[in-house]
Specification:
Layout (H helix, E strand, L loop, with lengths): L7 E4 L8 H15 L7 H20 L5 H15 L5 H14 L10 H10 L3 E6 L3 H10 L8 E4 H4 L6 H10 L7 E5 L2 H11 L2 E5 L12 E3 L14
Parallel strand pairs: 1-2, 1-4, 2-3, 4-5, 5-6
Helix pairs in contact: 1-4, 2-3, 3-4, 8-9
The structure holds magnesium ion.
The site of magnesium ion (MG) has 7 residues, from loops.
Length: about 240
Amino acid sequence: MYKKHYNYFLFDLDRTLWDFDTNAKNNIKGLLDIYKLPLEDKDQFFKDYESINRKLWASYEKGLLQKDFLKTERFYRTLLKYGIDDLELAGKFGREYLERMPFQKVLMPHVTEVLVSLKKSGAKMALISNGFKEVQYQKLTNSGLSNFFDAVLISEEQGVNKPSPIIFKRALNAINGVKQEAIMVGDDFMNDIEGAMIFGIDQFFYNPDELPCDGGPTYNSSDLRDLLSLCALPQ
Ligand SMILES: [Mg+2]
């Protein structure tokens, strides 16, 4: 069977290459140690935080609360669950959590192996991430990812977010790519996959939790190594 090969790979960062959830968990566990909080089950603390954070984010996205409030409140409410009623501590915790986040280095499974092989194959690679400039560049540098990329586009710097086709177009132009030989790799169906569909390039939906999806991405896989069969490796 004919298999299509690609020479231009566009990647998302968080939860595609950089393991956001593990890094958040490690970061919070580290902070519990720094503040010497007497919690026996740090994993449970993180689970409680995640659930509280999710609810607060949903309210934030609806415009019901401000970001600064969210940054403190998610820790205030979690600490309160453990009998610690301390707004000041929650504020400090919230600030330090954000400061320390870009220094976490855990990558998603097989990332280095895949990027090394793609690079060797001669593929050109660009990174497109919705996020804050300073944080995302630090994550890339600290985790050793920056050297793989021929271009990096961060939404804050670009003034435009995925799924807008504008940011996909800029990324492809930055690596002198052509649409027919380009593929977007990402874990977020709306921002990464639908964005790439609208722009008109193929999509690799990285779907580690095997979420059901009806939208029909070009590829749907829970294993990033499947990308290796899609690049035009030298004969
Ligand atoms: Mg992502």
